[in-house]
Amino acid sequence: MYFKGKNMPINKNASEKNEYADKDTINKIKKELLERKEQVLKDLTDISSKTDGNKDSEVKFPDFGDKTDENAQEIGEYSTNLATKTVLDSTLRDINGALERIEKGTYGICKYCKKRINKKRLLARQVASACVECKTKLQSRP
Predict the structure, then answer these.
(1) Number of neighbours of residue 120 by Cβ within 10 angstroms
(2) pLDDT of 32-43, one tens digit each?
(3) 62 pLDDT exceeds 70?
(4) 87: buried, middle or exposed (CB in 10 Å: 19+, 13-18, 0-12)?
(5) For residue 109, which of 33, 5, 16, 10 has the smallest C-alpha distance?
(6) Beta carbons of 51 and 45 less than 8 angstroms apart
(7) pTM of the model
């Protein structure tokens, strides 16, 4: 293992200079993450009683009226909103984690093997905290 820059381990077989994210790429990713965060918070506001994306916020129960078919529609909408909120909360947590790693200077470093994460992976999944190799190993466990 070799080190480059701020004690950042890299893979020995790194053949291309631009295989890993540089500052410009990380700044671009940060901007996109902030935009996604804003959209997720807006979406959470639309379905929840609180706007901070807090897991304690409650999903709003829709009010379509008092008729039986309207009540069924309300329950269906509420169930959909509960599932949507779960996904949005998870997405927000991932985005906040990535933004925190950017601020700490640890973004792009695998949390398992401590090697740098390939630029293509970070561009494909901006919230990635593990390299492809480690993620594959984790997913292949029984």
Answers:
(1) 12
(2) 999 999 999 999
(3) no
(4) exposed
(5) 10
(6) yes
(7) 0.74
